[in-house]
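Methods: example folding runs. The two proteins below were folded one after another, and each record is reproduced exactly as written to the output file, sequence line first and structure-token line second.
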Amino acid sequence: MRAKSREQMRWDRSAGRQWLVVLVLLLGSLGARQAGALGTAFTYQGQLQQSGALANGPCDFRFRLYTAASGGSQVGSTNTLSSVTVTDGLFTVPLDFGAAAFEGSDRWLEIAVACPSGSYTTLSPREQITATPYALFANSVAPGAVGTSQLAGDSVDSTKIANGSISAADIDNTSVQQRVTGTCVGGAAMSAINANGTVSCASAAGDITGVSAGTGLSGGGSSGDVTLNVAVPLVLSGSATGGIVKGTTSAGGPSGIGVQGESTAANGIGVQGVAHSGTAAYGVWGDSDTGFGTVGTSLNGTGAWGDSVNGTGVMGTCTNGTGVYGEAGYTGMYGVHGVTYASGDAGPPYPAGLRGDAPASIGVNGTGFYGVWGEDTSNSSGGIGVYGQSYNGIGAWGVSYVGIGAAGTSGGDGQIGVYGESFGADGIGVKGFGYSGINAHGIHGESPNGTGVYGNSTNGTAVYGYSSNGSGVGGWSDRAGGSAVWGHATGDNAYGVNGYAGGSGGLGVKGYASNGTGVTGSTPVGSSSIKVGVSGESTGSNGTGVKGVANTGSNAWGVFGQSTSGYAGWFSGNVHVTGSLSKNAGSFKIDHPLDPANKYLSHSFVESPDMKNVYDGTIALDDAGEATVELPAYFQALNRDFRYQLTCIGGFAPVYIADEIHDNRFRIAGGTPGLKVSWQVTGIRQDDYAKAHPILVEEDKPAEEKGSYLTPIEHGQPAALSVEQAVKNTEVVAP
């Protein structure tokens, strides 16, 4: 089928040629027609006249599809056909603008021609595309023409289906389950759902008439919903030789627990064992051939507790491991804790809360924050927290790899926390080793109301501590005015406290204060000789004489110096500061060049709100009255925001910066040959440190420093309003 549409389209140019085309549009498939859908290509035919004569020969055509008669948007691709045969003005071409080109909206065809080949001439006006019988046929669907293979996935939904258009006869009940409408009467149960929506029912046989609670259970009932509960407390009795309650697990490691008891109440007990009769009866018995007989672990209490009125609180026996092992996860807790209430006034053998006997080994071995902890609270004469006795060896031995080897506390007046006695030649009453870590202590003394460790010697060392890689002597006192370590020596060249550390990282003497001064030293007033309160000296290679470290808080000070009449700090030698240096004022001070023996000369620093660097020099201009100043190779890497100053020497000329700084140089011009020019350049630092730590020119004081002054006296305020007093509670002295 074809629909003709004739239109004269002229093109007038300087050559005077005129084109006339009579167009015939053939819409249809280029292939054989079938009842099904056609392709997207169609045939286009027309008659071409040139200056009133029918065109002949090969011509080039270009076809474009638009949404409007003029302007508009192009639809689909451009169809270009070369060397189309034109005979007596007639030509036929296939066109294809794609499947989306014709979706029901109006379309116009634009034609351009070149006869022979060359520049295209666009014919005007555009030709509107109208419908053809095949296009009308495509507006409907032939019966049976659309099957599942012609539908795109998810293209048909509920909005595309009219209500009531699908009946039960249209549904394949072998693939789609119909709505279930059947029910079962009381006492019957649904046994099957049929394809048509009906159900099959069957009789429900058997009834539960009641639930009874057995041993260790409570609850139950004979009707309705019933509940069984485990009785609390759960009491089981019997005479089974394998144990009334037994738990077995195949899991290894700490998570494999056969029987576990847990108490979340304060002072509660996870597992308790009581034995009433017989000297060999045990409340809790732990036995192991190669591991731990009993393990007690506590995060905030006691791992294992033993209590005995007249026997052994905790006893463990092991053939190849540990008889009793205790572990506590927090400072001040006890892995194993033994208490005895019997009086020890009668002398040895003393009653023991925890006792260990070993004929050729170690009676009691403790490892942890406290290897062995002994406490005496009886207030009776002679009470001892831990007692060690040796006739030719070591009375008490404590070993710790990261904590305290041995610690003793006594609560009675005049009592002894740790007491050691040795009767043999060169024996040691108490000896402590701390092997690893700067906080390991060979002997640790602690006193809430007195002296942590006291040593007194008439002809030797009052307290001596040695550590290969820790603290020789460590002391702790929490009382105001108390002494963590106090030593007194009256002989010449004697030491009240002498500390020596021979290993790498060791400390001869270390002081720690939770709310005071770790180490303090003082000298008497009125002596003509030089006195030093605290002296630090290092004779080793690259050693440090005095070191101060404070890493917590914005007002932490590694080293603090204060003087009422001289210098808070004096350094004889080079000083390096890694970080920022702030001050109230600054200057250099030297022996006066004109009178160095009797006078000083001081100059103030040059200040700026920026991190500014200054560079200057002089240079002579060349024959052209110009000069290039070379700056250091690092200049532009270090600086930014340059400023310039030029001054003529010995004459005047309008000198100026001809070329600003680039490639670490700048050029001066405008002068006369040989004229000397003084120049100055400044720049602001842009290195990584300066970027990370810019100077805050103005800032609010922190809350704890507001109302205080760096220099209160100069502001007419009392010295007590100093920053030091506010943040350190340090007595302030007037400068």
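Second run, written to the same file directly after the first:
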Amino acid sequence: SHEEGQLNVNLSAGVENAGLYDLQADVDLDYATGNAPGFTNEAAGTLRKSTGGVQSFFDVPFTNSGGTVEANAGELRFTRSGTLGGGSYDADAGAVLLFDGGTFTASGTLSGAPDGFVGHDVTLTVADGTAATLDFGGTGYQWTGGVVSAPGTGLLTNAGLFRLTGAGTKSLNGDNTGSDPVFRNTGTVSHEEGQLNMNLSAGIENAGLYDLQADVDLDYATGSAPAFTNEAGGTIEKSTGTGTSIVDVATTNEAGGVIQGNAGTLAFTRSLDNRPDGVIEGAATVAPPTSASNITLNGDVAPGNSVDILNWSGTYAPRVGGRLVTELGGLTPGTEHDQLVVSGTATLGGILKIQFDGSYTPTVGDSYTILTAGSVVDAFDSVEEPAGWSFDIIYGATQVVITAQPVEDVTATLTPQTGPADGPVIVPASGGPVQYRARLENTTAEPQTVDIWIDGLTPNGSVYQGAPLVGPVTRTLNAGQVLGPVSLSQPVTASIAAGVYALRIRVGTYPDTVIDEDAFVVVKEEAAERVAGDAPLADRSASPREASSAWVVYEVTDGAPVLAAATMTEAEAAALEAAMRGAADEADAHETEATRQATGAASEAAAGESLPAAYALHASAPNPFSDRATLRYDLPEAAHVRIAVYDVLGREVARLVDAEREAGRHRATLDGRDLAAGLYVVRLTVGGQAFAQRVTLAR
């Protein structure tokens, strides 16, 4: 019980403690003369400062060989040097246990669960070929200044709470060989104050949490450049601070690693390699290196930790296999669905992965702006979609918008019994029947129950008499089952007004949810429609012709007949032809062969072929349309597809698809809500071919 007065340990006098050495009041151990003595706290020993509200200085070399060191009151300060060979280190609330003089060499496991302060502000080193572990709970082990070093193969591991506190700069030093890491974290590093310099090729391996709090930095001042490796299970997070935390060391985010920017700006100024299955996420700002050669995005970028907006300060250019992961839970960006906001250019590629937040289910036609940028270039290479849903992607100049569409679990086909699969069927003024076939197919491996209905579309795009002509009826199709083709007949009486109609089949949940539809065109002629020497309407080309004092425009292109009726003046028709000629010239070169191929493909599809035989762009439905129109297209093989929409002046007003698509029958949605009423050209470019058709937007 050391109750009063200073104890001088002189002439290499040593103390070995295997019991309790209790420093009471504010007494010290020092030495005045001769060789330095030593104090060894053995495995069974306890060194304690139990009372005294100020300081007790331990100014003799100190060795702890697995024993216990406690500060119950005031400050217990070790101001010489020493060896920390494992052991337990604790401090009560308000008390301090501090190594703050000379160099301390650590080995074994140093542990504790302090309520006060335990730490160092001098040099803590791990010798070459040895290892030491810090395993502290409570308020953790605190590094307030000085150095941590591990030359050669020495390694310091944190398995508990390791805190960087104090405003001073800390230095993590290696031996300039770059061959081994100096510090490994499997617990939590709370970097709260001061800059950390990683010098002499000192490396950090992180498999726990490295939390950058406030606006602290990681840098290096001397020697070979260090590296920060975030391993599987590791997280680098900026959790607090409104300013910028700079990581100016080469950073690798390996598979299973996570980088989170949740406050202020987390900036990587040296290099950043996000490897496959690594994740960069957050709800604040991440700033990658300014040089494109110093950033590699082969992993995931996922705005939010759940649903949020992630700001990306700079250019965004995912590599092949790199994914943008967007989560949908509603229509509002930031609070209901993810959004990536890129300050520079987004040069797209890689994969877009779409997933739902919890049990969220979108409504068909719902649109989500998932990315904004200073400019958008190129397109995603592929899309990963939730089961049962597909998404149309519209690439704008500064944003990417996706629109929800259901997967066609059950496909529907409606074809005339004679002539091209998409029509037109010509009905004379006197009337007559329209003979057609309907076919359904369950393309999944599970039974599907759907409603089926057939309706007629009038020249203005509305449903004839506001109700289906057939159905709705509910049917369950077994896995892979084909229903039909079923032959049907629709009478068209003489009293039906002349014009361009359509017969359309839909499957889904009547009346609002449509998972697939198909249609063909029916033209009801009027008695005075045909002039002397004219060919039948079904044989006409895309050129308008004069009918009385107005123009009626009919078009049949590329095997996808579009008979969009509109009344125009001669001057308007001439301007339309001139404006559309540039967009349609390439398509015209393919018209004869494409018409033959597409017609054959549709006939084969009706007979039950699994894949289309040729590229084809089918008639939009409805046409004319007042809100949205569905465009169907066929791919006999996987290909890059581009579908763009042009106005009468030849300007691109929308891009519906610009991405790779698998072989099969596809569709895209044209959303006309933000477009002016009038005529537009839809142009499909695929496989070295181009297809065009006109659609009419009516209000």
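Comment on the second run: The two ends are 96 Å apart (CA to CA).
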